[in-house]
Here is the input.
Amino acid sequence: MPKRRIPGLSPNPMTNLIVTDIALRGAGRLARHFTEKALLRTRYSKDDAEKVVEGRSMAQTLAAVAVARIATRSLPGAAIVGSGILAKSLWDRSRGKRTARSEGRKQMRERMANAEKSGL
Here is the structure.
């Protein structure tokens, strides 16, 4: 049986795998940013939505990546992360809408300030 050739930029399959990985990660990042900005534009101006998305610190980004990786690698991980999200939602609701909203708005302003400091 003849070997099947997989089309790609390079004759080296490892190079093609790396290129594909980079392309998929880039597309995923663009889709995530577009979705986040679209969601935020329901309440904030286009500029403010962009500042919130771009104002995320490196620690926040790494934490989000780590939690997403835990959630997607196994069913127990998904259950733990899902339980944590549910617990946080219930905690916010138990403290009252005004308190949760004011804290959320404060965090949004901090993100916007981070974006302005970094030169957006």
Q: What stands out?
A: The CA atoms of residues 12 and 20 lie 13 Å apart. The mean pLDDT is 86.
